[in-house]
Fold this sequence. Notes:
By secondary structure, the protein is mainly α. Helix content is 67%, strand content 2%. The chain has a two-stranded antiparallel ribbon with strand order 1-2. Strand 1 (52-59) and strand 2 (66-70) form a beta hairpin. Helix 11 (192-208) crosses helix 21 (430-447), helix 20 runs antiparallel to helix 24 (492-520) and helix 22 runs antiparallel to helix 24 (492-520).
Amino acid sequence: MAEASTASNAQTGILGWVERTGNKLPDPVFIFFYLIIALVVISVIAAMTGVSALHPTAIDAETGGALRIEAVSLLAADNIQRLWVEMPKTFTHFHPLGYVLVVMLGAGVAERSGFFAAGMSKAVKSAPKALLTPVVALVAMIGNHAADAGYVVLIPLAGILFAAAGRHPLAGIAAAFAGVSGGFSANISPGQLDALLFGITEEAVGASALDPSWTANIAGNWYFITAMTVLFLPIIWYVTDKIIEPRLGAWTGGATAGAGSGEEIETQDEAAASKGLRAAGLAALFVVALWALMVFAPGTPLIDEAACEAIPAADCSIHSELRPLYQSLVAAFFLLFLLTGWAYGRAAGTIKDHRDLVNMMAESMKDMGYYLVLAFAAAHFVAMFGWSNLGLITAVHGAAGIESTGLPLPLVLGLMVLFAGLLNLFVGSASAKWALLAPILVPMLMLLGISPEGATAAYRVGDSATNIITPLMVYFPLILVFAQRWKKDFGLGSLTAMMLPYSVWLLISGTLLIVIWFYLGIPLGPDAPVGYTMPTVTP
């Protein structure tokens, strides 16, 4: 494996400052613990000084006016008792926890059986030479469902395929990295990321108590992320072929120059992989048919035919009846990944018996160990924010402040995208950042007329666009290693400079997309409008 010199890895300027500053930050788990300590101190001061706000949806039964929400000290006896007594409940009832663990039980099998890797390899290897860049970019964005496999398998494979086609392998690595990481939120269907982010969004809405009836729908950004995929594909194609590859120059190193380290990519027997993919395809069709049966068959459990009985016909829609279907998508993805992975493994020989299947599911849970620790800290931060009332108070005053500026709401969303992109340079974890931001931003934007789905969509645009230019991104060093197989003196600065055009164009285009989307009022997903109307005020 080639290693870059110290000089080539040194970052200077703004990117060097980002790297040095980010490296000084503690682990996200401890960031949450430090924030909890700060939250306790602030809650005590706020309670002592009488910080308060008028609740936007609740009426005080005694006065008949809006209910006044006052800051509550987290050192009050009730809150101290609540912290220790409800600690197991606070952790286990954290919405993202169940969503993510259920989906990952199935996705772990699909990844470890080789299904994800074989599917991506088959797709890009079959691409015509003229369409190599867009196929790599598209598979990379869709491959986000494959988690680590997108980085570990597709990115080095793209370099090899570009070299075999007589093109610069670093351009292939760049295109794949831009798709997998820069287009992290883009896809043609919801998946693990949607379950994770919407779980946090639901927790934030629940903590604010603004709309107790609102529940997460992991398909809430489906239309939007599909549009992101359609938009990002030609951008990555153009940047790769017209900006990055011309700067890299002609490739003269041959198709195997990058394999000199002896760490060649391991591929399964083509016949076994093809057999496994056919079996996985049949399994996928079975899951789709099963869910269709539960929707269209008589007496189906996934249609709430009584949903419109208690509301006026004008206020009812097909989405009200389909709510059980939307809520079942977490289980659907679990079963889809589980059965396709199992079918592939049985046909390809990577799963011998049921014990292999169980071991793969267990291994996927081992990989979630860090997430469990992070979720424990995040769950208590979000819950304590709600107990103190500071989240709602901050949201009310923040919304009033934004309204006083006269900024158009689409511009507010655009600024949120840019803020998320900036924060992403320092804190890489998507779940950690959203758990930090959602308790304030989600209710604040709801008060301004932007739905929780709209807030989530704006966040994910900014979160993904700058992944590819921060050395703090967990896979950044791995991508550097892949690049150094083809060019030994390729350093951190070189990789950042190569990916910067992608980041700029993805951030600009994504910001424009969310702004225009809001102006047009297009639903972000099924039963997921971009606008939001506060529920009727009740005593």
